[in-house]
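Colleagues,

Please find the record for the three-part complex below.
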Amino acid sequence: MPRRRSLHATRWDSIRSPGDQDKWSRLPMQAFPTITISTIIAVRSHRAGVVRFESPGYFPLVLLSMKQAQPCGTGLDSVLFCGGASADVSPSLDIPELPDLEADLRALIAAIPAGKLTTCGMLAEALGDRAAAVWIGRWLQEHAHHDSCHCHRVVRVGGVVGGYARDAAFKLARLRAEGALLPDGSWNPEALLPREVLHSVLPSPPLAELRRWQEEVRRAVRLQPLANPPEYLGGVDASYGVRGEAVAAYCHVRRSDGQLLESIVVRQPCRFPYISGYLAFRELPVMLAAVSAARRAGLRPDLLLVDGAGVLHPRRAGLASHLGVLLGTPTVGVTKKLLCGTLPQGEPQLPGAASPIVLDGETMGVCLRSQSGHARCVYVSPGHLVDVTDGATWTAACFPRRLPETIYWADRISRQASRRPG
DNA sequence: GCGACAG
DNA sequence: ATCTTGTCGC
């Protein structure tokens, strides 16, 4: 009997009492400046013959940033999931305060005067990384523009004015009226806003700051063999609802037979966009919440598989490394596409086979083909407290479908939950 | 010049 | 990641 007994009814019953809900609503939120609030939307046992726990309502979940485990002592720790006891977490790194990139982007665009122009790439540079250009381009296409906004002054490289939400003609007319166009209809290169102007709007570019934090994570990462063969494997993945809210699922799988034992789903608002290389800042909060909730329910994986890269990352600090460092637990990153690195031997051909992935002349990951020999491989790299070999070995241990079982279930369950209303 | 670029 | 129709396969 199972270690899983900790997911018994009593603990959850205490959470469900109306009195506790009241306590929650009276909690002074100002007391927790960097707190992340999540909602548990499902806790399930998947073992046949075992009572299934379905949470009927939504419970608040509070994840304190790691340095702030103190406020748990308010007597609410039976109600709130406070990131666990302080011994659970590595106190060395704190979750950084996330910038409001959309507000920063609006500020940059507002700073483009009439008659002047800029490009997505230059705006991205001003935010701190050219990689943000893709998101900016999409934002400009989707965001509802007003007569007073300056979004029409963002053009494409090479003279093409480019789209503008659904009204390219309006954009063209305004630019012509502002004198930024040449007679042939292309935009005037001399109208380009100098870099310094945008730089002065955001003297400390937010993405550059986040990069500095990634370097801290990189320094904290330890790649080492796993002490013991893992008995339980965890998997986390995130999906997004129609209103953009993030939903994460943690799935607990028994390594010996690959069976899904338990799952936990949490939800929280999400403001940070997807930018290649910065996925951690989009998904870390909701994933930390899911894993913390799992911990409080007694689910402690010996190895956590994350849907995202580990050290196979431009700064060797992918999502899985962030999770590992913040939780102080062994993590492995698993992706469906390669973010960086090369395959000197190509992809493995045989079912269940592996081939190395090299980054900067060093084997930093492994390409795995499933035991069923699926056409598409996965790309595995250690996140933290595990090495390349062990990470790949235990990822391959429960891998009968296209994705490792942990990731398969987390993907499926989070997606299903994100499509539900609420 | 064009594509690539975890989710 | 999400948006979508039909289509292929077990």
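Chain A has three domains: 5-89, 101-204, 221-418.

Comments are welcome before we finalize the supplementary table.
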